[in-house]
Structures are given as C-alpha cells and as structure tokens.
C-alpha cells in the first residue's frame, strides 16, 4: 500500500518567506534610522560654523502661503548676520522675553514646561508653549511646525544635538537669524531693516524689546504698535532685561 507524503513544503515556504520579509523590513528600518542619525549629526555639526542653506520654517512658509496675484511666490527676506554684528540689546531682549534660564539649562527648562502645562490645563483655548530658545531653533531649522508628539520627540533629539555640539552663543546667533519676525521676514537683520530701516547692530534697547515682544505672533503683531499687547510686552521685556542682569548676562554665555 502506497502512503501519500504530506504536502508540507508550501507551508514551510510561506513561513520562511514571512520571516524573511520581517527581517528585511527590520534591516531596512535600522538602515534608514542609522542614515538619519548620521546625516543629522554631521549637518548639525556643520551648522556650528556655517549658516544653514535654508530652514524648514522658510520652506513651509514659502509653499504654504500660495502665490501672489502675478503667479509668483511671496518674497522671502532673510540675511545672515554674525553674532558680533548683532546688537547686544536684541540678544538680551529675546532671552528676557523667551528663555530667561537660557544660560543655565541644557536645552530643556522643565520648570517653564511645567508652568506651561498647568496654564494650558486651565486655559485650553489658547495654549502656552514653554519651549526654550534651543527647542525653538531645533523646530525652526529642522522640523515642521504642526504640533504632535512625534514632532516633540524629534525636536528633543535635535535639541540634545544642538546643546551638545554648539556653544550657547552659536545657539543664540542661530535663533536670531532664523526666527520669523513678520510675513516673509526671517532673521533679525531683515527685521531691523524692515521695521526700523537700520542694521541689527544699531537697534536701540526699546526697539529690541519691541521686536522681542512680537515673537509669539510675528505675523499678526507689529513692533511699532503704540497700543495693546505689544506695548505691554515691550515694557515687560525692558524690565526683564534689567532684572536678569543687563548686558552682563551675555558674558555668562561665552
């Protein structure tokens, strides 16, 4: 009597194929992650000494605002200014306004984050950020603007890289050069030229305080406003600039 052999081969091949595909997918995932870490590390290191080619924020603004009436893209105003050629007033003003613990933290101000969380739980309609200057640089240079847990995770990675590879003066220099100060206006030099018709090196204390005052909403607020929240924030910045130690604070960054 002839016994038929069980047809196990197709089942075995299916199992082997599934394992192979899973291993192949995992291998490619690790390769992609490795390439991402490698390129992000060396590009961040490159930016320690050189200006960025462009920033993610500029790219997003250029392609999300549509076209002008003549079918051209909105004009972008951006000009790099080195740290030594930027007024100490504006350096101090953005620190006083955005991140008073900038000199002492390692990229994350957990006290400010906790304060922002408590504020957001009370006022869900208008959320408060609590991001440090380092975190804002990471977001503006490398990442997309929409809030999500994924972006916050990648932002934390880039913030760690920035703090590890750049001195504080470079972080502040980058922030001042990539921050948005109005529609199509990026960097403090472009902002100083647009609003005050002067170089960033010639900004007065009050002008610097006013420019720092509009940072939370630069596309809606104008630093030359004579009333409203901008004036209140400008006065607050002037007091904070003095409170944190004036220009002496900047020496702690060197």
Q: How would you summarize the topology of this molecule?
A:
Layout lengths: L8 H38 L9 H9 L12 E2 L9 H11 L11 H13 L10 H10 L6 H17 L2 H11 L1 E3 L2 E2 L1 H9 L8 H9 L15 H15 L4 H4 L3
Parallel strand pairs: 1-3
Antiparallel strand pairs: 2-3
Helix pairs in contact: 1-6, 3-9, 3-10, 5-6, 5-7, 9-10
CATH fold node name of the largest domain = Penicillin binding protein transpeptidase fold
CATH superfamily of the largest domain: Biosynthetic peptidoglycan transglycosylase-like
Assembly state here?
single chain
Helix content: 55-70%
Secondary-structure class: mainly alpha
Give a structural overview:
Helix content is 57%, strand content 3%. It is mainly α and 254 residues long. The chain folds into two domains: 11-46; 51-65 and 76-251, Penicillin binding protein transpeptidase fold (Orthogonal Bundle). A hairpin with a 2-residue loop joins strand 2 (180-182) and strand 3. Helix 1 crosses helix 6 and helix 9 (205-213) crosses helix 10.
Summarize this structure briefly.
The chain has 254 residues and is an all-alpha fold. The chain has eleven helices and three strands, in the order H-H-E-H-H-H-H-H-E-E-H-H-H-H.
Question: Keyphrases for this structure?
Answer:
single chain, 254 residues, mainly alpha, Penicillin binding protein transpeptidase fold, 2 domains, three-stranded mixed beta sheet, 3 strands, 57% helix
